[in-house]
Design goal:
Layout: E1 8-11, H1 14-25, E2 28-34, E3 40-41, E4 50-57, E5 60-66, H2 67-73, E6 87-91, H3 95-102, E7 107-114, E8 119-125, E9 131-137
Parallel strand pairs: 1-5, 6-9
Antiparallel strand pairs: 2-3, 2-4, 4-5, 7-8, 8-9
């Protein structure tokens, strides 16, 4: 039985990425791992470098892993570029409120619109170039 999907994405800087997701998108920081250690922490602190973090908002989770640590854990992806040839499609409610709360905080890649298949959606780029879509069904499918 499948339970959930949590993307583990390669990032340039864990601190910057955590701040993007928490400050701009309203995610919560769940945990951090100090760089070059196995020490878990629960809050960002000045002067510390991190290799990994997990953030979430409701049922959506992202793991954010610094490029070198990512390459060590997944050697087959060591030379992969940061960013993706995929988008993360997030099904949400109250899309208008969410859109209005973030539109001046982040780069809107595709503005809010209703699709032919009945979803109201918009796309953003995060601070590492990953594309996130936020969508809400407009009618029963």
């Amino acid at each position: 039985m499948f339970k959930k999907l949590t993307p583990n994405i390669m990032v340039n800087n864990v601190r910057e990425s955590v701040l993007f997701y928490t400050d701009n998108l309203g995610f919560t920081l769940n945990l951090l791992v100090l760089a070059n250690t196995k020490t878990i922490e629960n809050k960002l602190e000045e002067g510390k470098e991190y290799s990994y973090a997990m953030v979430s908002r409701d049922e959506i989770f992202f793991m954010l892993m610094e490029k070198n640590a990512f390459g060590e854990d997944l050697p087959m992806l060591k030379n992969t570029s940061i960013g993706a040839s995929a988008s993360f499609y997030c099904d949400i409610s109250d899309i208008d409120d969410f859109y209005n709360s973030i539109k001046n905080k982040t780069e809107i890649a595709i503005d809010l619109h209703t699709t032919w298949y009945g979803m109201k959606e918009f796309y953003i780029k995060d601070c590492n170039g990953y594309v996130l879509c936020f969508a809400e069904a407009q009618n029963k499918r």
